Amino acid sequence: MVDLSVAIEPVYLATVFLFIIALQRMSHPLTARSGIVWAGAAMLIATLVTFFTPGLTNLALIVIAIAIGGGLAYVAARRVAMTDMPQMIALFNGMGGGAAAGISAVALLGETTPVTASLAVVGGLIGAVSFSGSIIAFLKLQGWMPSRPVTFPGQQIVNMAVLLLAIFSGVGIILQPSWIPVSAGMWLPLFFLLALGFGVLMTLPIGGADMPVVISMYNAFTGLAVALDGFSFATPNYAMIIAGIIVGAAGSLLTLHMAKAMNRSLTNVFFGAFGATDEGAAQVVGSMKAIDVDDVAVLLAYADRVIIAPGYGMAVAQAQQKVKELSDLLAGRGVSVKFAIHPVAGRMPGHMNVLLAEAGVAYDLLFDRDEVNPEFPATDVVLVIGANDVVNPAAHRQGSPLFGMPILDVEQAKNVIVLKRGQGRGFAGIENDLFYRDNTRMLYGDARETVAKLVQALKKL
Amino acid sequence: MTDITAFWIALYIAMLAAFTGYVVISRVPVILHTPLMSGSNFIHGIVLVGAMVALGLATTTTQQVIGFVAVVLGAANVTGGYVVTERILQMFDRSGKKPGKGA
C-alpha cells in the first residue's frame, strides 16, 4: 500500500475547515442541505485517510466493524418514519458517546501519562453517561419504557453517590491506591459500570416533555467526550478536539436556548422530576364543551384570520399532510392562515417546522411564539392540533408547575378549537385550563381523521 | 501526549473552537434547530476516526474487543447521523423551492 500518512494532517485540517463551513451553511434554510453534503464529504475523506495511520493493524477488523455499524445504522435511519426522528437522533448520539467511552477504555488499558489518563477518564465518564442516558431517552421516546418521570425516595442522594463513586473509581484507575482492597484490573470496569449507571439514573426522573433539552444536552456531552478523547492519543488528534469542542459549545448553547424557551433552569430539568406531581385539577372550574366537525368548518370558512397551533399530537397522528390541505383550502377562500410554532412543541426544537416542511407548508407561514403572540386577540379561530402544555394558560397562574413558562396565548382568540384524542392531560400531566374556557370548544378524535373530515366539510361549503 | 507544550497548544485550539461553535450557532433560526442538532450529531461522528486508531493500535484481546465495539458504534453514529440529517434537510429543500405557495 502506498504510504499516505503524510496526508493525514492536511486532510484533517481540511475536514475541520469543511465542518465549520458546513455548520455555517446549515444555519440558513436555503444552504442547509449543501452544508450536510460538505460535512459528509469531509468525513468520508477523513475516514479513508485514517487507514494510513502509521502502525495501524487489525485492518480487517476495522473494515468489518465499519460495515456492521454503518450498515445497520443506514437501514435504520432510512426506514424510520419522520415522526420518530427525535429518538433516532438520541440513539445515534448515544452511540457516539459509547464510541468515545470505548476509546477511553482502550487508551486506559494501554500506556498512559498522568495527563492523558486523566483526560481519558473524564472523556470516558462523559461518553458513558451520554451513551446510557441517550439510550434511556430513546426508550422513553420510542414508548418502550414509560415516558413519565421515574422517581423513588432519596433518588438525588443515590444519583449523587453513584456519580461520586464513579469519579472516585476514575481516580482509582490513575492512582491505583494500595490502601484500598480493589485489584488493579478492577478499577476500569467498576468505573465504566458506575458511569453507565449514573447516565441511566440521571435520565430516569426526566419526563418526556423535557426530552428535547435532554437530547440536546447529551449531544453536547458526546461532543465534549470526543474532544477529550482527542487528547488521549500519543499525538493529539486535532480533528477530534476541534470538531468535538465545536459540537460541545454549539450543543450547550442550543440546550440553554431550549431551557430558556420553557422558562426552566437546567437544574430544574434534571432534578425537578417535572410532571411527576399531580396538581391543579381542583382549581379548574367549568366543563369541557364539545363541538362537531361541520360547525368548525363553518367557523373556519367565514373567519378572516385563522392560526393553527400544532403539537406532538399532530406528529403522532401523522396529520401534517391533511393540515397542509386544510390550510391551502382556507387560503383559497381568502382566509389568512398562519402557523404558531412554540419552540418546544413536539419532542425536539423545531420538530413542528420539520413536519410541516415535510408536508410542503411554506416556511414563511410558520411563526415563532414571540412573533405570533400579539396577533391572537385579533384572530377569529385558533385551531390547536394535538398541543397541550404549550397552550396551557395555567402557565400564567402562580402555583402551577408550569408557572412562568412562555406559552402561545391562544386563549385570547375569539374562538379556540382544540383537536384532541380524548380528555387526558398533556405530557406534563397537568390539567389544562384552556379546555374549560368559554371560548374553547373540544373536537375529539384522531387528529388526521378529524382534519380530513374538516377538509371534506369545507369543500362542501 | 508526552509533551506538555502540545497539551497547552491543544487547549488554546479547544478554546478557539468553543468560540467558533458558539458564534456559528448563535445565528441559527428556531426553524433549523432540529436539523442543526442532527447535523452536529453527525459532526461528532468524527469519533469514528479515533475509534479506528484505537482498534488499529490495540495489542491485547481486551483492547481489540472494546476497540471493535467502539468502531461499530462510531460508524453507526456517522452513518445514522448523516442519513437522518440529510432526510430532514431534504424536506426543507423541497419547500424552499416553492416559497409562499401555500399562501
Task: Give structural notes.
Chain A is of the alpha/beta class and 461 residues long. In chain A, strands 3-2-1-4-5-6 form a 6-stranded parallel beta sheet. In chain A, β2, α14 and β3 form a beta-alpha-beta unit. Chain B has one domain. In chain B, α2 runs antiparallel to α4 and α3 runs antiparallel to α4. The longest helix of chain B has 37 residues. Chain B starts with a helix and ends in a 6-residue tail after the last helix. In chain B, 65% of the residues are buried. The C terminus of chain B is likely disordered.
Give the total of domains of chain B: 1
Low-confidence stretches of chain A: 276-282
Name the largest protein-protein interface in this structure. Answer: A-B, 126 and 91 residues
Largest sheet of chain B: none
Report low-confidence residues of chain B grouped into runs of 5 or more.
95-103
Span of the ends, CA to CA of chain B: 59 Å
> What is the number of E strands of chain A?
6
- Head-to-tail CA distance between termini of chain A: 74 Å
Major sheet of chain A: order of its strands?
3-2-1-4-5-6
**How would you name the oligomeric state of the polypeptide chains in this document?**
heterodimer
Number of helices of chain A: 16
Write a compact overview of the structure shown.
By secondary structure, chain A is an alpha/beta fold. Chain A has 16 helices and six strands.
Q: Mind sketching the topology for me?
A:
The complex is a heterodimer of chains A (461) and B (103).
Chain A lengths: L7 H18 L6 H19 L8 H21 L5 H25 L4 H29 L12 H21 L11 H17 L7 H20 L7 H24 L4 H6 L21 H9 L3 E6 L1 H6 L2 H13 L3 E6 L9 H9 L6 E3 H4 L8 E5 L29 E6 L19 E5 L2 H14 L1
Parallel strand pairs in A: 1-2, 1-4, 2-3, 4-5, 5-6
Chain B lengths: L3 H23 L6 H11 L3 H10 L4 H37 L6
Helix pairs in contact in B: 2-4, 3-4
